[in-house]
Amino acid sequence: MAKINQSLGEFIIENQSEFKYSSGELSRLINSIRLAAKVVNHKVNKAGLVDILGTAGDTNIQGEDQQKLDVFANEVFINTLTNREIVCGIASEEEDDFITITGRNEKNDNKYVVLIDPLDGSSNIDVNVSVGTIFSVFRRVTPSGTPVTIDDFLQPGINQVAAGYIVYGTSTMIVYTTGHGVNGFTLNPAIGTYYLSHPNMKFPEDGNIYSVNEGNYVHFPQGVKDYIKYCQKEEEDRPYTSRYIGSLVSDFHRNMIKGGIYIYPNTSKDPNGKLRLLYECNPMAMLAEQAGGKASDGFNRIMEIQPTQLHQRVPFFCGSINMVEKAEEFMKNSK
Ligand code: AHG
Ligand code: MN
Ligand code: MN
């Protein structure tokens, strides 16, 4: 008979004591995310059957078209976290400002804030290609019982207590870390339970996949152009193979399993690149480092950047350690 792995629920209970300030709050938070992800998964799977494809008719603060599923996923995650009163604040790609959560008695003793990209790669929805959700968790820095402030959200990534993503792919997985390695759980949709399928995930130190939107090549900095030429050069272990889904979660997930590098550099059009530091790059950076990989802006460690704005963008180089270091070398040499 096939082995039945540990469920995510069992895993959370068993590992709760590893959490720095263990009181069950972070476990409840992860539990809520796991629940919201099931609801979003259910909807994503029905794309094409129910009226959820296409744009919602609005743009977010970053001027991007909101897809119907962007809006839906945003509501599901915010409602799930708000109703359970387990966080004191939420910031989302789809919300202009952070959300302050006051408890039923107008007082909020919860310790954590969550930053979230509810639906990543949303332009892929209409064509039945994998999308994801990315989340980042911090302990608040302002006093408990008071409303959260922007300072609770503008913390460097090294302060993250947990980070993870959900990939709604050929199967749905939740992959997360609380600072003790990275574990991946696959949803069995028939019974609605996630099982530990990928314990202790590790980025191979080297890889042969590079993921970058090469259509923007002419706008790339010289260091990235040089690195791409290096990837394409004929050598013993090269040329590398090029894979780009256009959904950070899926590209990252594949690279972590197979070995590879993901690059979204600054361009002559977008001097800070496209990806958002707080709810895309920081959580992916924590996962990468926890899995033995690396994440940088081409020069500096992502998780040491002091954020100044909620929706700030940053160039992103992330993946197998030797590949990221090689790309950094090209960036440095071209300066
Ligand atoms: P989002 O759907 O949350 O706005 O994120 C899309 C991001 C990321 O997932 C992806 O890697 C990148 O945008 C793709 O951008 P390009 O289409 O410019 O390559
Ligand atoms: Mn995104
Ligand atoms: Mn998004």
Task: From the structure above, extract its key features.
single chain, 335 residues, Fructose-1,6-Bisphosphatase, Chain A, domain 1, D-Maltodextrin-Binding Protein, domain 2, 2 domains, five-stranded mixed β-sheet, 8 helices, 15 strands, 22% strand, globular, binds 2,5-anhydro-1,6-di-O-phosphono-D-glucitol, binds manganese (II) ion
Describe the structure.
- The chain has 335 residues and is of the alpha+beta class.
- The protein has 2 domains: 8-198, Fructose-1,6-Bisphosphatase, subunit A, domain 1 (Fructose-1,6-Bisphosphatase, Chain A, domain 1, 2-Layer Sandwich), CATH 3.30.540; 209-334, 3-Layer(aba) Sandwich (D-Maltodextrin-Binding Protein, domain 2), CATH 3.40.190.80.
- The protein has 8 helices and 15 strands.
- Strand 1 (55-59) and strand 2 form a beta hairpin.
- Helix 2 (25-44) packs antiparallel against helix 3 (68-83) and helix 5 packs across helix 8.
- 48% of the residues are buried.
- The structure holds 2,5-anhydro-1,6-di-O-phosphono-D-glucitol and manganese (II) ion (2 copies).
- The site of 2,5-anhydro-1,6-di-O-phosphono-D-glucitol has 11 residues, from strand 5.
- One manganese (II) ion is lined by residues 70, 93, 117, 119-120, 122.
Write the layout of secondary structure elements.
Layout: H1 8-15, H2 25-44, E1 55-59, E2 65-67, H3 68-83, E3 89-92, E4 99-100, E5 112-120, E6 131-139, H4 150-153, E7 162-168, E8 172-177, E9 182-188, E10 193-198, E11 209-211, H5 222-232, E12 241-242, H6 248-258, E13 260-264, H7 277-290, E14 294-296, E15 316-319, H8 321-333
Parallel strand pairs: 3-5, 11-12, 11-13
Antiparallel strand pairs: 1-2, 3-4, 5-6, 6-7, 7-8, 8-9, 9-10, 13-15, 14-15
Helix pairs in contact: 2-3, 5-8
Bound molecules: 2,5-anhydro-1,6-di-O-phosphono-D-glucitol (AHG) and manganese (II) ion (2 copies).
